[in-house]
Each structure stands twice: as structure tokens, then as C-alpha cells.
């Protein structure tokens, strides 16, 4: 029998701590799984039907032709005349995301949901032995294929830090598994490009290049203080530790705003057609504020024209979650922004709630708490509307005419944020 902390009872020298799962071409794979006629075909997923928007996902078959996330639709069609173009279905992707979480949880607990297609699991005790970690990874991959579908492949990275595990998951696709052991570093990393690491985008890569750092070997040998200097702050220290297999402290962030934006389809770009979009986004903000138990004390509106240029306005008011009050503010700002932009067609509309406070914030003895402006009759009506739309479907009852928008306006899947299910009925 081996002593605790030695041999197979724990770490085998690899320092392994994280198992990171990255779904391959997730949105496109979901579509191919749900629509068998799209399997083995080049496919892209788009947010809106327009030759001038970009793919938000590309299938493995499309990627083999050089089409990738961010490729303009018009160019993608030229690269592949038979390309399948599919409208995004965020509610489907969120549903499958939760099913994947359930499957992973049958093998080991999910420690952190990193994005809609990436999760991290913490290896404990004997699981940190490489053979055991690999076995867990293979079991997860197999169960996803068996229980969710043959198109849902996952790549897995296993490493000492979460950042290295994410990097490892991207090194072998699709359905790959890469292990980065502490006692083998930096060896397996030296064949990568510096921007293969999370946190090094085009701007950071350019900054490193100007400093004479173009290879991973040079990056590895930088000191923490030099990285801090290059990153311009503590982000450099955190990157150094993560690169060398040590997780930096987690930072906890608080929500300071709620924002919804929409890139307009061609028929919605005339100014008179775009205004209902701004109002619909505002209604969504109000519904979300009430669901989250919040009020906001200001709104920000931004509109971007098709001929470049942007106009924006901001209003501050007593804190509220009353949609009627929010709509009054947005109508006022809309006329201001349209006049300033002075263009007949609008490409994008964004609405942001500012100065948010909990709805139950009590009045301050000295009057420092934000004032509250809500009409009791309005709030009763809005609560009833929220309940009807949640029960019978989005926009079953609406405030004013319903704009001709797709079903998922405002329910955006950001890189590091998975929409809540409730957002699809708001």
C-alpha cells in the first residue's frame, strides 16, 4: 500500500489539476445534430440573414475550406457555392449546453462554466494521476456522443493550471485529448504561436513583437515583473503564473449594467423601422430588471449608421424597473441620436441600463440612496405581462406594436456568458 500523497494515490509528478472540455464547432455541431440533412456539409451559423454579416460558427467541413468564425457571409459563399447558411438558434444551444453539463456531472463535478461550449473540472486526489485523468476525459467524451449525439464532439485538455488546460484542449481537434504535465514544461508548448494562449490577442501579440518576443520560448523565460510591464498591470503577473502551471487568484466581478444590442436586417435599417427595435430592447431591459430584482437609474442609447459613424445619448432618472418610464427616456434619446447621426439607415442599436441598484434598497437616513420613481399601477400591469409571456410565449402580450424581429433579439451568447433560460421569453 502506498502512502498518501505519493504514487497513484495522488499527484504522479505531473502537477495535474484541471480537466478542461471544449466542444468542437459547437453551434454548427448542434445544428448538424438536430438536422441530419446538414451533416457532413459545409455550414455556417449567422446572427442575421445578410451578405454583410459574419459567421458566428463554422462546421468542421467549412473550416476545411478556409471558412471560419468571423468570415463575412458574402466571402464564404464565394469560397463554397454549396455552403449551408443557418440562422442562429440560441435557445437550442443553451438547452444542449445544459444537457452537456448534466452528462459531465455524471462523471465528475463541473467546477466552472467558462462559456457556452467550455467547462472546467477540478481533479481531486487520485484523479490527478495522468492515467486516471485521461480515463475521466475519455469517459466524458464517450457519454456526450452516446447521450446527446454523434455530432457533439469534445476536445479535452488536462494541465496544472486552468489556462494551460484550456490551451491544451485547443491543441488537438476534433475529439482530441492533450495532457500538459508540469514536469514536461515548457517542451510541449514550444511548438505553439504566442497568440495560441488565452489572453493574447492581436493587440497583445503586437506589443510582444515590438518588445522582441515572437516565440513561446522567449515568452516562457520572461520574469513576472517583465510580464507585468508588458501587460501594463497585474494581468501580466497572472499570465506568468498561469503559464507556469499556477492558478492566479480568482477575481469576483459585480454586475454594473444590463445591455442589449441588435444588428439590424436590411428591412429594419430605415430609421422608422429601426425605432421599434430600440423600444423592444428597452422592454427586454425592463423585464430583465424585474426578474433580477433590480432597478436602474439611467439609460444609454447608441445607434450606428450604415455609412459609418455613431450617435449616442444618456439619460439619468430616479431608479426604476418601470418599462413605461424607460420607454419615455428611450424615445427622447432616439430623436436626439437620429438627428445627430443624420443618416437614413441604421445598422446597429444598443440599449444599456446604468446605475443599477437592488430593488429592495431601503431609503438612506441622510438621503444618499437613489430616489425611486415607479407607478404602482404600472408595476402591477407589468408583473401580469411578465407572467403571461413566461407562460404562453415571448411577446404574446406586448407594449405597442410588435416589431418584425427574430425570436432571439437581445438574447446574446457572449464568449464568457451563457444566457439564462428566462431570457428567451423576455
From TrEMBL:
Keyword annotations: DNA-directed DNA polymerase, Nucleotidyltransferase, Transferase
A Pfam family annotated for this UniProt entry: IMS_C
EC nos: 2.7.7.7
Chain ranges of the UmuC domain: 18-201
Highest taxon listed in the record's lineage: Bacteria
Enzyme's top EC category: transferase
Keyword Ion transport: no
Catalytic activity: DNA(n) + a 2'-deoxyribonucleoside 5'-triphosphate = DNA(n+1) + diphosphate
Family: Belongs to the DNA polymerase type-Y family.
Function: Poorly processive, error-prone DNA polymerase involved in untargeted mutagenesis. Copies undamaged DNA at stalled replication forks, which arise in vivo from mismatched or misaligned primer ends. These misaligned primers can be extended by PolIV. Exhibits no 3'-5' exonuclease (proofreading) activity. May be involved in translesional synthesis, in conjunction with the beta clamp from PolIII.
Assembly and oligomerization: Monomer.
Protein name (database record): DNA-directed DNA polymerase
